[in-house]
Amino acid sequence: MPTITVRLDDDTRDALQAHAEEEGLTVSDFLRELIRAEVTPVREDAVREGFTPDSMTPKERHILSLLHRILARVMPEDSNDVDGDAEYQLERAKVLEAGFTQEYWTEYAGIAPELSKRDAKFVMDVLDMFRMVDHSVAELTKTEPVSDEIVYSLRFRGFDHNDSLEHKMANYVEFLVSDGRWVERAEFLEGPERGNSHHPTIDTYSRMLAEYRRIREDGRKKPSNGRASRTLSVADLNALAAARVHPENR
């Protein structure tokens, strides 16, 4: 059996010895039981989606408990929707008042971890880039051909619903579109894929955005010449399409 050495100060060692004697165990056996209790689960807890704190302050618990009790008083007698009924609301109040931390997950079942400002800005930058791509293709095709291969390559493909971060980004796209922004993506979101790329896209979009920013920066340095200053050229589109491909696969 492997041996682990733990260095303790005198006070901790004495307290450990005292607890072990109270339990009628040697220090080694007492420590072994403590470690086993921490690392060997008796049962498998269900995985809870979303964010649940390990603890809440008395003030937070008191406020939430009062809200549950208020809901219990104002809910219709035959209420049985997502908020449950009066009995359910009173049960949640009692859980909070008693401080049963293992049951707090119900309070936060619909609260997901945040999408950071950086990641939210990334989503909006991606949508802006593809808006410019679509606009440029529409303008260019009025006077010159743009290959179907490039048009296909530069389609917005959404985000991967199987990845936790990308799924949250996909949900943000859906929110932005429903809020009246980037509404040109509504048809894509309502289509058979429902905005799901079915493969990770963050790395691909990051390479494209890096190239897009370079193109925009170069464009700002050039004299304005009407339409060309507001659209991407065929060469720009080709550069963006090339950026989709990982450098190792070019």
Please tell me about this protein's structure.
With 250 residues, the chain is mostly helical. It folds into 3 domains: 10-39; 58-108, no CATH class; 117-249, yfbu gene product, domain 2 (Orthogonal Bundle). It is built from 11 helices and no strands. α3 packs antiparallel against α4 (86-98). The protein is flat. The two termini are 53 Å apart.
Summarize the structure.
By secondary structure, the protein is an all-alpha fold. The chain has helices spanning 10-22, 27-39, 58-74, 86-98, 117-140, 148-153, 164-178, 186-190, 202-221, 227-230, 234-244. It is built from eleven helices and no strands.
CATH architecture of the largest domain: Orthogonal Bundle
CATH level 3 topology of the largest domain: yfbu gene product, domain 2
Strand content: under 5%
> What is the helix fraction of residues, given as a range?
55-70%
- Number of strand segments: 0
Shape: flat
The low-confidence runs, each spanning 5 or more residues with pLDDT under 50, are none
What is the CATH class name of the largest domain? Mainly Alpha
What is the CA-CA span between the terminal residues? 53 Å
Structural class: mainly alpha
Q: How many distinct folded domains?
A: 3
Total helices: the number is 11
SSE ordering: HHHHHHHHHHH
Largest sheet: none
Find the CATH superfamily of the largest domain.
yfbu gene product, domain 2
Mean pLDDT: 87
Radius of gyration, taken over Cα atoms and rounded to an integer in Å: 29 Å
